[in-house]
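As a warm-up, study this chain.
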Amino acid sequence: MASTSTWRSIFSGESTPLQWIIIFIVFLLLVNFIDIIYYQFTKFTKTITIKSKYNAMKSGRYGGTKYMIEDTDLNLYKVINVNWKLDFNEAEDWNRMEVGKTYKVNGYGKRMSFVGKYPSIYSYSQA
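Now compare it with the structure written out below.
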């Protein structure tokens, strides 16, 4: 546990680069830990038939592309990378999935419209 003087030095601007590196690493671990807990409580495996797919462009400072899929039950899903699983192929997965075909998908998450969050698909196989 860090002593009071260590915390005081961090918040007074007298901290060392090593202290900031440690804070950064702890922050990254905390964010990944929260994502893993969210994954464990909301993971799913289901069979879907793709009705349509599209790209949603994010605007702003951290812009990019959301790879979205709609199934025949009118549910929306976002195809994602899972950093803590070292799975970085969202664009390839989305590209290989074809409209009208049925897939067994693995994912996690719930729809939270007030923050623009969708259930996420991180892997699939043809059903």
